[in-house]
Amino acid sequence: MPEGHTVHRLAARHRALFAGRRVTVSSPQGRFAAGAAEISGRVLRETEAAGKHLLHRYSGGRTLHVHLGLYGRFTDGTGDPPPPVGEVRLRMGRRGHWLELRGPAACEVLTAPEVEALLARLGPDPLRADADPQRAYARISTSDRPLAALLMDQSIVAGPGVIYVTEVLFRAGLPPTTPGRMLAPEAWQGIWADLVALMREGVERGRIDTVHSRHTPEAMGRPPRVDRHGGEVYVYRRAGQPCLVCGTAVRTATLAARNSYWCPTCQATW
DNA sequence: CAGATATGACAAC
DNA sequence: TTGTCCTATCTGG
Q1: What is the pLDDT of residue A32?
Q2: Left (φ > 0), alpha (ψ -120 to 50) or beta: where does A230 sit?
Q3: Which candidate in A149, A180, A190, A210 could, as Cys together with A167 as Cys, close a disulfide (CB 3.0–4.6 Å)?
């Protein structure tokens, strides 16, 4: 589930559920027992998302940092918490509502300087008001690395994962192998604006849906896709299947240890 | 029931 | 570039 939109959505949900309240924190699985003891019984002041990182800021200056990694997920519910099933790393609750976390890559309590250091190594996040896209462009435009790798580098842009990056490059008409250096400033502005729009929509809807959004093939100045069936994304994980816009078989390759997908016709060249 | 897979990141080579 | 880690779920035999 987890690209940046998921984490921002969680931050908002956790804020609505628990911010300003005293919460109990435990680790049924045991792996977060010490951290849980540090924050349990404190007031959760505020929640925040930065890229794919979730922060719960507690009274007393401590911050819970969660990174979902590939499999991490939260569940929550009303009433009394159910008996723990499986590997529940963290459980938190207040009267009437509980929250569980399984499988995170990171679940730890950080000090203020550690939080600062974490935030300092992240690039601009399209979902944050304080984001400066030019900071990302300064890195992109001076690199020979392929765009797919640059945009997935969280120190360049924080939040997008392989799906958003794959799809935004399709929508920009650029192959994932395009060297960063080749990206014109206007093209970057377009990609950034597209990331902002798509990811905001992702936060609202709780899913990544790049085809049925406001940037339809028609709006992109391309012929409408014939197939009305087919799903939420243009090319991600659609290797060998016909491009939804032009019908060419979607190509795939491994780029920077991640799978890339692109349409060789719609994304012919920079 | 073993094995593959999943929207990620990092250390080690 | 490869291996490793976090957990659950789906596939096939």
Answers
A1: 98
A2: left
A3: A210
Confirm whether pTM is higher than 0.90.
yes
Q: Region of A51 please: left (phi>0), alpha (psi -120 to 50) or beta.
A: left
Give me the sign of the Cα torsion angle A232, A161, A47, A95: positive
> What is the model's pLDDT at position A221?
54
Under DSSP, the state recorded for A242 is: B
Determine the Cα–Cα distance for residues A118 and A5; give it in Å rounded to an integer: 19
Residue-level pLDDT at A257: 80
Strand nucleotide closest to residue A67 (CA to C1'): B8
Residues A262 and A241: their CA atoms lie apart, in Å, by: 11
A1 CB below 7 A from strand B atoms: yes
3-state secondary structure of A13: helix
The C1' atom of B3 and the CA atom of A236 lie apart, in whole Å, by 24
Selected from 3.60.15.10, 3.40.50.300, 3.20.190.10, 1.20.210.10, the CATH number assigned to the domain covering A4-120 reads: 3.20.190.10
Assign domain A133-262 one CATH number from 3.30.920.30, 1.10.8.50, 1.10.630.10, 1.10.10.10.
1.10.8.50
**CB A2 within 7 Å, strand B:** yes
What is the distance in angstroms measured between the alpha-carbon CA of A172 and the sugar C1' of B5?
29
pLDDT along chain A (270 residues), means of 10: 92 98 98 98 98 97 96 95 94 97 97 96 97 98 96 97 94 96 97 96 90 58 42 85 90 87 91
